């Protein structure tokens, strides 16, 4: 169930923590890891947290310097939190004094919160993800490479040849697939690229795609492609494929190979060979290999910035307009840069933010497995998709993600909205069609208080069956709280013995009352059980035989008795943590990497700005795109 | 003048781009004296959603003297190459998923072993580059996943299918590792991009260099692999020169292209075993290119969803399936292979997993064998067995003919007789009396039950009575299904029900009892 736990929120736990931290006197700058913190860890923690199987997979013995500590920066907030609450060290172990704990805390605050110097990450080229590759190839060729397969209702078929043939990227350390840093090129992928390019170029030069070819060559007459047109085609294609201007001598080197072709047929054959060289080259397959700069920190160049922006918002290469602005150097003008962000967001291609980013963020592909009935599964999944698209398109405030009276449903999902389904326009199934996929209608909920927002969408509830999965999902995806894997020997929840009449929740709470379990379950369970009125299918159970206990208490001390009350807490006192998580996830996706400790100030800045202005989803995208780590980089010098 | 061109020489030349009929001029090199025995190929073509039995069944007729049914007309010209089997199937009803499993696995409960095509592929597919091809036209149907597969591996697990003729074509004829020209292209490409990457590397920063190292190591691996191949693989014919299918805009073009490729694959001996599904067994496809707007599955339930338009649309679709079978046979005949045509050296199994498409009867399942299999089969015949024959018996027989050593398959230990010149127990109906009587309350009739031939009343049944007007059976779907009228079709029965008499015309509108005169009772299990 913790398969998602690689998806670590970064600074999340701090916020629960700050709710009960007393102000500390020392500013911590004078506390040193090597001299102060490490000896404390050695004395109280290393006995368990080291060796072949360190507790909670956390080995303090290998964290030897401040630099090591920086690398595992996500750990420390949680360490301080557990020390302060007394949950660690365990009861029968030696405990550090309050002074020692304060020392740890001030070190933590100083190094990871208060005095962090913001900086961008080191520059690193990155291979296109399968999804980006598909989109980029489509933009370049002007058409999709499709699989010949008949689509019928209730069946599933992969229509994209790229997605069918390329292995699906595993999520990187950031939790997102566009973080391909840990996913190297292999010969298997190479063969598939080669095949795809052959198939793509064959189609590109076929009569059916002449219009797309002419985009590069200019209008082709009856007599076929001329040498001059071939030349123009190759030059413009290479420039677009590399997503930046190419040196003339580089272009000329390519041209040599198409010179002197004896016939049009021969010319086209050679062109295909040259285009394949372009499309199999590292400059096309990787982003950033042609970025120019000198060692040290600096803004990325205009073309790199254009690329970052378009892959962030579109999951696709820059279009001609963005390239034009980049070549004029206009992206360094704040107002022009900002208007480009708006233009990209207004383009239909910005559906990427929903279909790639949000789908991964909220693990919405899990809904595919909720039902084998395809139109129904599609209907369930389309609800969060349409809703998130709406948040971006209508530029809604961030917290409407979980608190909104806008819902999307169709005839297959309307039963979840009994009081508002009458708003749905009459649907008449066409004759001879048994079930079909019907678009959602936007409905403003009036009488369905149990729905509204992502958390109460039937598909989202159904993909996380049971309170623990729901709680973990909320913690990781919404609140950005990292959770370690559960211990391996948790066992089953015992059934009621003779005479016992405990509810599932009561038995579960007995089962996980051990301190080792409680550390996490105190956070997970109140969230998860708050949704107990929604059954496995996501349906709302208004009445039931057994009393349903949806009450709970957050680690912050706040109490609630229903999900509605919890939601009220989430959008008020937990608001800051949710906004912070939204910013972190967005930034991590935009940067195609896991966030580091030095990203904290950039995140803080955006969080503050969004809080100050009751920011919206478009504000969020803009602020991330304008942030320092997005616009700048550090190029490592030879000596480093 | 000698028109015969050695096949290998021809394939190496540009000639392979010639239109296909010219390829018939080819003969195996070496001449008649030392002709090796032609390999025998096995192919199945699966038809989704059963049939409308009155249009499919041959009623009456003898083994060597019969008339093809209306639905068989599209491939009637191949009559002499066909072995039409009748009375194949089981006694119960069949779900779509079960009927799909039955088609090549012999029985719906035979879920832990390989389907017969795979056993045959194990036997005959070892010498070809591709052991077998498993093909289809449409996506998966997850709600009843069994509807999407006819081929199963040793564990009885479904084998992934491919639908795209271009992908199959490329796999067969354009594999860069198999063909010198493609290999040469790849070597040169690797050279070029490798050079480019090295050039970049010289200018690159630390991180870039790591990435380029990764890229270059893949390029080197790819080069190494080609280098290894050069020393081991022999020169193979220039298959790359076949024309790749293009512009496949609908199902018809997709299927034609795939059938072309299958024939080519057989002819070039790239594979000897192919299964091809014209659709999932409960296909929801819409045949818009035939001007039809309703889903195939909806139409196939022609009793429940009865209208004249619907049944006509259904028959149009079935006819299209038959045309594709015809296309395949014609194609296989057009290729010369050693001494005969490809079809003479192939066994083609065409059919479905169920009979009546509305109530899913598992009796009289459409099953036709085509081609002589190099002498395995005696064609030009209509073989109607005396008793219902499980499909597994047919499979056991075919397996043995292909040299697979199996004593039993799908719970059957007797192979089906009659595929060659062996004796079999032919269907023979004892004589019976027919009559109708009414006691004022109920009507009882004895005679042969048949479905109406008139498409305007396709859901009506008749019981034929000698010297009288046939008794009309016009009942609800409930009665039709409960008494399994479809099962008894074509056979003598005694039937009791209520209705009315107008002049000499009896009409029964409600059934109370139905008994078969000679046959078994239909099963009720869902099989």
Give a short summary of the structure.
The complex is a heterodimer of chains A (640) and B (527). By secondary structure, chain A is mainly alpha-helical.
Question: Explain this structure to me?
Answer:
The two termini of chain A are 41 Å apart. In chain A, α9 (210-217) packs across α10. Chain A is globular. Among the domains of chain A are: 2-114, no CATH class; 126-287, no CATH class. Chain A is mostly helical and 640 residues long. Chain A is built from 27 helices and 8 strands. Chain B is of the alpha/beta class. Chain B has 3 domains: 37-174 and 246-284 and 321-401, 3-Layer(aba) Sandwich (Alkaline Phosphatase, subunit A), CATH 3.40.720; 180-232; 435-516, OB fold (Dihydrolipoamide Acetyltransferase, E2P) (Beta Barrel). In chain B, 30% of the residues lie in helices and 17% in strands. Chain B has helices spanning 7-12, 53-56, 96-105, 116-124, 165-173, 180-203, 206-232, 251-267, 296-300, 308-334, 391-401, 477-482, 485-488, and strands spanning 5-6, 26-27, 41-46, 82-88, 133-135, 273-277, 336-337, 340-341, 346-351, 367-370, 381-389, 435-438, 443-451, 461-464, 471-473, 492-502, 505-516. In chain B, the strands form 4 sheets. Chain B has a 7-stranded mixed β-sheet, sandwiched between helices. Chain B is elongated and about 105 Å long. The relative contact order of chain B is 0.17. Chains A and B meet through α8, α12 and α13 of A and α5, α6, α7 and α9 of B.
């Amino acid at each position: 169930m913790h398969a998602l736990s690689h998806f670590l929120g970064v600074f999340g736990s701090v916020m629960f923590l700050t709710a009960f931290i007393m102000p500390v006197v020392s500013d911590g700058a004078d506390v040193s890891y090597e001299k102060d913190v490490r000896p404390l860890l050695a004395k109280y923690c290393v006995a368990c947290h080291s060796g072949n199987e360190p507790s909670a997979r956390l080995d303090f013995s290998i964290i030897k310097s401040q630099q090591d500590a920086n690398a595992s920066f996500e750990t420390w907030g949680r360490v301080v939190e557990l020390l302060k609450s007394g949950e660690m060290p365990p009861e029968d172990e030696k405990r550090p004094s309050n002074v020692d704990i304060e020392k740890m805390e001030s070190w933590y605050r100083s190094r990871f919160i208060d005095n962090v110097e913001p900086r961008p990450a080191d520059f690193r080229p990155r291979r296109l993800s399968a999804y980006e590759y598909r989109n980029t190839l489509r933009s370049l060729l002007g058409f999709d490479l499709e699989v010949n397969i008949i689509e019928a209702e209730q069946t599933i078929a992969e229509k994209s040849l790229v997605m069918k043939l390329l292995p699906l990227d595993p999520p990187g350390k950031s939790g997102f697939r566009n973080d391909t840093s840990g996913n190297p090129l292999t010969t298997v992928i190479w063969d598939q690229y080669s095949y795809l390019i052959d198939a793509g170029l064959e189609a590109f030069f076929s009569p059916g795609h002449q219009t797309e070819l002419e985009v590069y060559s200019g209008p082709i007459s009856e007599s076929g492609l001329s040498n001059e047109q071939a030349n123009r085609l190759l030059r413009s294609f290479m420039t677009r494929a590399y997503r930046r201007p190419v040196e003339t001598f580089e272009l000329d080197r390519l041209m040599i190979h198409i010179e002197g072709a004896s016939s049009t047929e021969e010319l086209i054959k050679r062109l295909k060979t040259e285009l394949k060289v372009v499309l199999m080259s590292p400059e096309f397959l990787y982003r950033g290999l042609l970025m120019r700069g000198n060692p040290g920190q600096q803004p990325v160049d205009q073309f790199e910035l254009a690329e970052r922006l378009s892959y962030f918002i579109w999951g696709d290469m820059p279009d001609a307009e963005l390239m034009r602005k980049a070549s004029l150097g206009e992206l360094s003008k704040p107002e022009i840069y900002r208007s480009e962000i708006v233009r990209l967001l207004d383009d239909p291609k910005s559906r990427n933010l929903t279909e790639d980013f949000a789908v991964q963020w909220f693990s919405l592909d899990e809904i595919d497995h909720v039902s084998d009935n395809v139109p129904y599964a599609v209907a369930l999944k389309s609800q969060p998709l349409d809703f998130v698209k709406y948040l971006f398109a209508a530029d809604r405030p961030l917290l409407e993600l979980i608190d909104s009276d806008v819902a999307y449903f169709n005839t297959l999902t309307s039963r979840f909205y009994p009081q508002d389904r009458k708003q749905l326009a009459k649907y008449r199934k066409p004759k001879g069609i048994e079930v079909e996929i019907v678009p959602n209608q936007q409905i403003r909920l009036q009488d369905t208080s149990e729905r509204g927002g992502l958390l109460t969408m039937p598909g989202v509830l159904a993909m996380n069956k049971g309170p623990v999965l729901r709680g973990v999902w909320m913690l990781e995806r919404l609140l950005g709280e990292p959770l370690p894997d559960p211990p391996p020997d948790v066992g089953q929840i015992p059934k009621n013995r003779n005479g016992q009449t405990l509810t599932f929740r009561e038995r579960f709470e007995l089962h996980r009352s051990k301190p080792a379990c409680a550390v996490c379950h105190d956070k997970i369970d109140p969230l998860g059980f708050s949704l107990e009125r929604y059954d496995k299918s996501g349906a709302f159970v208004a009445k039931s035989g057994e009393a349903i206990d949806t009450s709970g208490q957050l680690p912050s001390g706040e109490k609630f008795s229903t999900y509605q009350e919890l939601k009220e807490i989430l959008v008020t006192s937990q608001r800051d943590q949710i906004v912070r998580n939204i910013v972190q996830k967005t930034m991590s996706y935009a940067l195609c990497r896991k966030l580091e400790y030095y990203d904290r100030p950039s995140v803080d800045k955006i969080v503050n700005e969004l809080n100050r202005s009751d920011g919206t989803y478009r504000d969020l995208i803009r602020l991330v795109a304008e942030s320092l780590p997005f616009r700048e980089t550090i190029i490592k010098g030879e000596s480093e | 003048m000698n028109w015969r061109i050695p096949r290998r020489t021809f394939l190496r030349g540009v000639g392979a781009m010639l239109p296909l009929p010219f390829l018939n001029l080819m003969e195996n090199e070496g001449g008649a004296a030392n002709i090796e025995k032609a390999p025998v190929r096995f192919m199945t073509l699966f038809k989704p959603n059963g049939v409308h039995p009155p249009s499919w069944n041959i009623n009456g007729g003898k083994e060597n003297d019969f008339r093809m049914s209306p639905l068989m007309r599209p491939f009637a010209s191949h009559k002499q190459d066909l072995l039409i089997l009748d009375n194949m199937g089981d006694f119960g009803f069949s779900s779509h998923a079960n009927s799909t499993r039955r088609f090549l696995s012999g029985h719906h409960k035979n879920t832990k072993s390989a389907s017969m095509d795979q056993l045959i592929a194990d036997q005959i597919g070892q010498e070809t580059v591709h052991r077998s091809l498993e093909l289809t036209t449409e996506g998966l149907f997850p709600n009843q996943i069994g509807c999407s597969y006819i081929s199963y591996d040793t564990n009885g697990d479904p084998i992934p299918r491919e639908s795209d003729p271009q992908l199959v074509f490329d796999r067969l004829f354009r594999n860069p590792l198999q063909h010198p020209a493609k290999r040469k292209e790849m070597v040169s490409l690797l050279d070029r991009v490798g050079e480019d990457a090295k050039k970049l590397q010289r200018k690159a920063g630390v991180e870039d260099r790591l990435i380029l190292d990764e890229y270059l190591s893949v390029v080197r691996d790819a080069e190494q692999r080609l280098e290894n191949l050069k020393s081991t693989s022999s020169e193979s014919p220039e298959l790359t020169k076949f024309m790749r299918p293009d512009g496949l805009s609908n199902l018809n073009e997709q299927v034609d292209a795939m059938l072309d490729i299958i024939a080519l694959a057989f002819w070039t001996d790239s594979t000897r075993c192919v299964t091809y599904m014209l659709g999932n067994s409960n296909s929801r496809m819409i045949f818009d290119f035939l001007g039809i707007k309703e889903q195939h599955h909806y139409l196939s339930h022609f009793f429940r969803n009865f209208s004249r338009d619907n049944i006509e649309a259904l028959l149009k679709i079935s006819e299209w399936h038959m045309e594709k079978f015809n296309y395949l046979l014609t194609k296989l005949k057009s290729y010369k292979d050693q001494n005969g045509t490809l079809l003479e050296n192939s066994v083609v199994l065409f059919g479905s997993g169920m009979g009546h498409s509305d109530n899913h009867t598992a009796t009289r399942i459409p099953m036709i064998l085509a081609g002589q299999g190099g002498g395995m089969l005696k064609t030009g015949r209509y073989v109607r067995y005396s008793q219902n024959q499980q499909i597994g018996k047919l499979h056991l027989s075919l397996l043995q003919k292909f040299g697979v050593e199996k004593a039993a398959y799908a719970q059957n230990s007797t192979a089906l007789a009659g595929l060659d010149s062996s004796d079999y127990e032919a269907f023979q109906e004892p004589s019976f009396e027919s009559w109708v009587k009414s006691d004022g309350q109920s009507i009882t009739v004895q005679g042969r039950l048949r479905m109406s031939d008139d498409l305007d009343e396709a859901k009506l049944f008749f019981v034929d009575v000698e010297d009288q007007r046939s008794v009309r059976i016009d009942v609800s779907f409930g009665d039709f299904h409960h008494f399994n009228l479809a099962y008894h079709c074509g056979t003598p029965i005694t039937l009791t029900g209520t209705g009315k008499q107008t002049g000499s015309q009896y009409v029964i509108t409600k059934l109370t009892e139905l008994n078969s005169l000679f046959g078994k009772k239909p099963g009720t299990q869902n099989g």
